[in-house]
Amino acid sequence: MVTQLGLHDNDLVLWVQLLAETLNAELLATLQADHPDLRYAHGFLFQQLVERPRAVGEVAENLGVTSQAISKAVRELAALGYVERTPSPDDARVRLLALSERGRAAVEASRAARRSVNAELAAALGEDRVREAATTLQAALESRNAMQAVTSRRVRSAQGLLGEGR
């Protein structure tokens, strides 16, 4: 079947991209109500710091960018109160990055927004369809050898850490 766009309905890549763009825009708009300075790309850095503080070099390696790119993003996020830099207890020359209280609040706000959208989708589509879709998308990630990046929080932005615009 051909849609109004002239595309075939089974173009999974297209539908996933369009849904991701739509959901990302909705979630970012919700998050920016309380955190107006945050951008989509900041989430990739936040994910590196959710579990524990990390060294600049480790974050850079995990995200596939330079230490300079991480340092630039951290300066911005530290000035906004989302990230803190502290000396490593093992080596004072190494700076550890950690989420501040405000950074953790932004992470929780993002999680709450995702829970809300997931609940809306479950109400609109039904719990079984949402669970089946999630399972299918996880299998698709596995088929592309991408689940390791997801589970290790090493998903990288296609636009780079600093992204485009605000």
UniProtKB/TrEMBL annotation:
Pfam families cross-referenced by the UniProt entry: MarR_2
PANTHER family in the cross-refs: MARR FAMILY REGULATORY PROTEIN (PTHR33164:SF99), TRANSCRIPTIONAL REGULATOR, MARR FAMILY (PTHR33164)
InterPro entries with a match to the protein in the record: HTH_MarR-typ, MarR/SlyA-like, WH-like_DNA-bd_sf, WH_DNA-bd_sf
Ranges for domain HTH marR-type: 9-142
Name of the featured protein: MarR family transcriptional regulator
